[in-house]
Amino acid sequence: MHKRYTDGELAEALKGLTIIIDSKEKVYDHIESYLKKNKVPYKVRNLETGDYSAMLGDMTLENDVIVERKASIDEICGNFTTDRLRFEREFIRAKAHNTSVFWIVENATWSDIFLGNYRSKLSSKSLTGSIMSWVARFGLTLIFCKPEETPRIIHAILYYKARDILKYGDS
């Protein structure tokens, strides 16, 4: 149970937002550069689920909100084929905790998926079906974007989710 905050306490608490980057995240230079440039505190450490989450002081938001980032459609294809069980377990854990999951896919659009503009041999129909069934099954919010947009989107998701938790509590 999170404490409910007044507006003044809320503004002060949000100054202490720290982004958590999963230590298994391999390529995130563009995100780290944004965080440094904008003086957003961050820590690299193991996350059980997702690639990014946040904390406020010693209060972690890992069971409240995560961001799963994919660098391309081909990375998703790999997750749906060779890595499917591991990938699915992450989303099952998130759903069990009622965690809000934001799924960011860089360098992708629905047109790319529908037209098969990717290297994987996974068919457009299979990929579309897998993505949409997981969005429905796990309550994912899916965001396609350019890599240069990703850091701002991650920061905004985590900031506003933290604000809502502080403002409205768990209910």
Oligomerization category of the chains in this entry: single chain
Number of domains: 1
* Tally of alpha and pi helices: 7
Could you report the average pLDDT, rounded to the nearest whole number? 94
CATH class: Alpha Beta
Stated plainly, the CATH topology is called: Rossmann fold
CATH architecture title: 3-Layer(aba) Sandwich
Description:
Helices cover 46% and strands 20% of the residues. It has a single domain, classed as Rossmann fold (3-Layer(aba) Sandwich), CATH 3.40.50.10130. The mean pLDDT is 94. By secondary structure, the chain is an alpha/beta fold. Strands 2-1-3-4 form a four-stranded mixed β-sheet, with helices on one face. It has seven helices and seven strands; from the N terminus they run αβαββββααβααβα. The chain is globular.
Any key phrases for this structure?
171 residues; alpha/beta; Rossmann fold; three-stranded parallel beta sheet
Topology:
Elements: H1 7-14, E1 17-22, H2 29-37, E2 42-45, E3 52-56, E4 59-60, E5 65-70, H3 73-80, H4 84-96, E6 100-106, H5 110-115, H6 124-138, E7 141-145, H7 150-168
Parallel strand pairs: 1-2, 5-6, 6-7
Antiparallel strand pairs: 1-3, 3-4
Helix pairs in contact: 1-7, 2-7
